[in-house]
Amino acid sequence: MAMVEDTRPEHTYAEQTPRSKSWIEQAKKIMPGGITANIKHFAPYPIVMKKGCGAFITDVDNHQYVDYLLAYGALMLGHGHPEVKQAIDEMFADSGTLLFGAPHPLEVTFGHEIQQLYPSMERLRYTNSGTEATLLAMRIAQAYTNKKRIAKFEGHYHGGYNDVLYSVSPTLSEAGPADAPIPVKESKGMHVTDGEEPLILPFNNLTACERLLRAQQDSIAAVMIEPLQGGFIPATDTFIAGLRELTEELGIVLIFDEVKTGFRIRLGGAQEWYGVSPDLTTLGKVIGAGFPFGIVGGRKDIMEVTSPTTGSDVFDQSQSTFSRAKDVVFHSGTYNGHPLILAAGLKTVDVLKRDIKDVFARTDMLKDELEALFVRKGVPMKAVGIGSIFSVVLTEEDIFNYRDLQASDLQTRKLIDLHLLNEGIYTKPLNRYSLSTAHTEREVERTIAAYDRVLSRLFGG
């Protein structure tokens, strides 16, 4: 259905957010582009926030928004959950410090909890972010297999470092054939020797993946995958089961990057949903309760390559020919297993065990009502996702991969998103929607009403 008029939201946006605009201009004098993480930028300028409470955030111009970004999905209990705050306060009061820099009991308590929910994680290590977790998972796989190259999927994001910052959002003119994608660099400053780039695989195309992996099996250490691309486009059951069987046959480590999907589609993540056990798993976002945190875990025999009992530490100056740092995978970090974060994460798991079904039900309600509204307006749309994550995709076609998503009406989706910001519905334009335990029917109704006004403005009816 054609738009009624070329209704642009930028003027209203500028009228409503002058302090955000001023703040960004001042910030440009301190940070390149006024931003300390590129992902936080969007045109014409990002909204600057000052307060969060439950399902809502408030900007520096005192406008309140229903928050569906939730720190890119990290805040599954919403903002400022009282039980999490209490757990942090009690941990600080009991320990008397913010950090030990030494082992402490919560590392084991928390680890047991993770192993109950993710049985494939027979041994695990804590990191300080999801990006660190994927980086460590790759190093572990490379050490275990004694192979170097990584395979990843077109459209999948695993962190902003050279090894995997390829073909996340390539233009289709550069991306190569759909069944044999070409690695496309996504940043300046990436200088990688030809042949060391990751092998790019087509998501949800098992036949092509098998052909590409068999041809390169002697050099591929691991296949890293988001089981749901971008957190919302699901792998088919046949594809994920076939990929598991294929990687086992070829001696390639299968890594599930569940930084987005962990706890958000099931308590046990995508591996619970699919009934498939990867060799390694990375977690982050939700499990950190709003703090920087990550986990790598997997098969005992693979994870043991990080054990310091098998070799010297890189800082051990007493190394000899009988015990060398290079005999073990080095992994360290001053803040790994931070006690306050583990306390917050444990409480998050407790709350989700009690309330996660309500989050899923509320998400399904929002998806169903949105799809019904778009039908009434005569605008093609699918709410694509599982559990507590989905994205609004303007198409009549099924979405199986990055290229299918690119064929949808992304420009109109971005326009709708900017209008919704003016209506008090917050997510970064074109981003997925994440819900929390703090979202209720009231927020769903408020969101549907906002969408109704925006679609009526753009399409009539």
A few lines on this structure:
The protein contains 14 helices and 16 strands. The protein is of the alpha/beta class.
Structural key phrases:
461 residues; 7-stranded mixed sheet; 4-stranded mixed sheet; 14 helices; 38% helix
Could you explain how this protein is built, in words?
The protein contains 14 helices and 16 strands. With 461 residues, the chain is an alpha/beta fold. The strands form four sheets. The protein has a seven-stranded mixed β-sheet with strand order 4-12-11-10-7-5-6, with helices on both faces. A hairpin with a 3-residue loop joins strand 8 and strand 9 (233-234). Helix 1 runs parallel beside helix 13 and helix 7 packs parallel to helix 8 (237-250). It is globular. It starts with 9 loop residues before the first helix and ends with a helix. The mean pLDDT is 95.
Mean pLDDT: 95
- Let me know the number of strands: 16
Approximately what portion of the residues adopt beta-strand conformation?
5-15%
Major sheet: size, sense and barrel closure?
7 strands, mixed
* Arrangement of strands in the largest sheet: 4-12-11-10-7-5-6
Which residues form runs of ≥5 with pLDDT under 50?
none
Measured as a percent range, the helix fraction is: 25-40%
Q: Tell me the series of helices and strands, N- to C-terminal.
A: HHEEEHHHEHEEHEEEHEHEEHHEEHHEEH
Coarse morphology: globular
Quickly give the structural class: alpha/beta
Distance between the termini: 11 Å
Total helical segments: 14
Radius of gyration: 23 Å
